Amino acid sequence: MSAPVEHAPRETRTLQFARFITRNRFPVACFLILSSLFFFYPIGNTIAGAFGIELPGPIVRIDTKARDLFPDHPYIHAQDKFEGFFGNASPVVLEMVVREGTIYTPESLAKLKRLTDALDGLGFDSHVRQRDELRDALEESGIEDIDEIRRRLDRAYPPYPVNHDQTRSLLHRTTQVVEMDPDGGAKFEALAESVPATQAEAEAFERRILEKAPEVYGRLVTSDGSAALVMVQFVTDRLSSTEVYRAVFDHVQGIIDVETDDNHDIYVVGVPIITGWVLHHAWEMLASIGGSVVVIFVLLWAYFRRVHAFSALQLEDEEIESWQR
To answer: What is the per-residue pLDDT for 255?
Structure first.
């Protein structure tokens, strides 16, 4: 009985390429490592920049500009035209809830006034002097594009781009009542001329709301007086970078941390806040993705190592059987 004829494998381009890779393992491995480092450098620069160490060269920036998320539609153009009068698409709403009693106490009304002022931007460090110095330096360096200068300023010293004229609260100057003069003239006054300092003044303020501005019930205060709202509008075009969203989010969260106590709960919602939470948990998402990649590679390594060991064992068994024959 003649021995079986062994056929040489067909010389395909794939087989030739595989042989080339196998024969030049070290140069190919070096090329893959260097190319991986080359393309990873912008990402590594981004990670270093998050810790305040920005390296020279390219960097990957992941920014969210609120206005760019809107479609090119006539309704959006109308929104851009009238947002100065009717508000824009980037509101933040804060709710102060009293656990026991109502908001009509000196303590609760004083807290509501602090929340209103803080959400309206009071206490936020805008770095005016530093922004002016950086603007002068950028202009002297030859940068003439105003939008580019603003982007760099906002990244270095992020603003708090609230529209002060669109703030709404029981204790804000924009909440007004109409007083009629005996001769028929109308006079506009702030609903709260000052913050009530005593319980009698707080009760008088409640009666003033019932008499002069009952329309605020259901909008700025609940009908039972257990909660009040503070609403602010942010300039959509200025929510243009990750740094701005972080600045807004950190300022608002600082307000909540300071003003929450045993009798007052504070809740806040809005697109800038939701985006801020996503950025706040970005490292957790990155760690989850990185961990998943590592687990996949470990499982693949273990699988191929087991297959290789099984193939080697099978080849050894075949050699033993051939020797025995």
So the answer is: 94
- Candidates 119, 147, 162; CA nearest to 259 is 119
Exposure string for 277-288, b = 16+ CB within 10 A, e = fewer: eeeeeeeeeeee
Residue with tokens 């087989």: 15
Which pLDDT score, from 0 to 100, does residue 111 have?
A: 96
The pTM of the full predicted model, rounded to 2 decimals, is 0.73
Give the three-class secondary structure for 47: helix
120 with 130, same domain: the answer is: no
- Say if 310 falls within a structural domain: no
Residue of 207, 144, 219, 138 whose CA lies nearest to 174: 219
Q: Over 60: is that where the pLDDT of 245 sits?
A: yes
Q: Return the structure tokens found at 201.
A: 């003044």
The burial of 305, by beta-carbon neighbours within 10 Å (0-12 exposed, 13-18 middle, 19 or more buried), is given as exposed
Residue at which a domain ends, from 106, 138, 159: 159
Tens digit of pLDDT for each residue in 257-292?
Answer: 999 999 999 999 998 999 899 888 878 887 888 889
Helices and strands in the chain, H and E counts: 10, 6
Query: Is 120 in the same domain as 136?
Result: no
Q: Which of 217, 218, 261, 248 is nearest to 96 (CA)?
A: 261
